[in-house]
Amino acid sequence: MRQIxxxxxxxxxxxGLVGQVLQEWGYALDIRxxxxxxxxxxxxxxxxxxxxFGGPMSANDDDTLPFIRxxxxxxxxxxxxxxxxxxxxxxxxxxxxxxGAQVVLQSEDLREIGYFPLHPTAPGREFFTEPMHVxxxxxxxxxxxxxxxxxxxxxxxxxxxxxxxKSAFGIQFHPEITAELIEHxxxxxxxxxxxxxxxxxxxxxxxxxxxxxxxxxxxxRFLWQWLYRQPAIAPDxxxxx
Length: 241
Prior knowledge:
With about 240 residues, this protein is an alpha/beta fold. The protein has helices at about 15-25, 65-80, 90-100, 180-190, 200-230, and strands at about 5, 30, 45-50, 85-90, 105, 110-120, 130-140, 140, 150-155, 160-165, 170.
């Protein structure tokens, strides 16, 4: 069976909608959590693609969290092997650092928690056909690495999505989000909802109802393009890939 390797950073992490879509398409998910000591594979031939998700730690924690440094070194190996790579939030920031860019705290009072607008760049219209609202949960942002193409921008954090080579992508936002994940995240980190830049908890659920279908449609098209390196033309996204 075709496999996707998924790297998470908390034992209770859930790949959400991303995992659901890939399983619907017939992929098995190999989920690893290096933060609790689970090893990352050195042999990658068994995987069609690799997705690295977010987490509460920082891509700059490599001096205090050894697994962060090990994971960034491993990401460099993934890129060398030219395996399809997708980094989400922390996964995008570690990709940026692995490519020589910085991950920075733009301001102590600047963060995105909730739904925020996303704008495609001219080169990004291959993957982002129109503006949309996406779910965010972060306070750090990444600089655009050299030899990378900026695909989407935000109002508060300008660098939101980028591409490196043919099949490595980093996105700051969370397309995996579901109503269940919003319930879990906003309950477990309720204190963060009081910080500047965070939206009130009821607004998370209200905007999810407004924007989630558009994000799901985008996610299905994007995953198809990412895995198969061709335009997303399937008329019925319920069909197996």
